[in-house]
Predict the 3D structure of the following.
Amino acid sequence: MVGADQEARAAGGMNGGPAPMVRARPWPRGAALLCCSFLCVALQPAGAETWPARPITLIVPFPAGGNVDAAARIVAEKLSVALGQQVIVDNRGGGGGNIGARAAAKSAPDGYTLLLGNAGVTTINPTLYGNPGYDIRKDFAAIGLIATAPLVVMAHPSVPAASLGELIGLAKKNPGKLNLGTPAIGSAGYLSAELFKASAGVDMVTVAYKGTAPLTSDMLGGHVQVGFNTIPPTLGNIRAGTLRALAVTTPARTALLPEVPTMAEAGVPASEAVLYFGLLAPAGTPRQIIDRLNVELRAVVALPEVRERIAADGGDPLSSSPDDYAAAIDREETRWGALVRKLGLKVD
């Protein structure tokens, strides 16, 4: 073994030459990694947490019991399991959905407040209302789609039309004599009916109701001959033959009424109307949280149980990327906004 004085002589230090350079021996690899780990922990900001570290609020901008609420509760239940934190449904109805959407838009963009958006909130209200209190493009970040929901064009059995084409022919022969029932003015159902009238070139008297239930009731009584409505309130009557389904407004046939043709199949492709349901977060929510939610949402929508429950509530399951949902909102808001302006509709 070579001693320290021998090392020095070899370097010339004991013969009048320059003092030897002392070289530090490298740390063992394990010790270096351990020190680095302690340094990283020390540099983490105080209060940093791994998302999600607490319950998440899912705002539903409508009262409990409707199709938007049903979609929210299906998703919230499964996301709670996937994320390991409870997703709490918070119904904030009022203002056609604006009150809840406004609250979501003003929430902290930290991934702990989400919004269940439908066609009204995302694509109609921004133009229909003078000041909805939010900007759908600037105040929200799209997470992903959950489902689409068709409207169904129905006729009372007394109407001598077995198809949409026959109904159009009947309306053209009798301008202004057929009543067309719809949900409330400015709703997706109302606008879809107006779009149909314009696309088919027919003159029918629009009768707007406060909800789908009174519309269904008056249709069964024959007070209105034709109606645009969502499927769940009318499905039993359609299957019983007390109402006749002529077409659905989505591009593809719906699972609940697979025998009913689409608007395009019935010869009126310009009358297609897709009602989207999706998940949004306040603008500025970190992209990694948006992406995590999108991954989990896609997995939830793919579950057979979830797909069955969505279908039972009148929807067709549909997932998407955040960018695809944002593009759908932009496209549909432009389309419905133009129709709202053309009809001169405005709610202050």
Notes: The chain has two domains: 56-149+275-343, 151-271. The mean pLDDT is 87. The longest helix spans residues 322-343. The domain at 151-271 is CATH 3.40.190.10 (D-Maltodextrin-Binding Protein; domain 2).
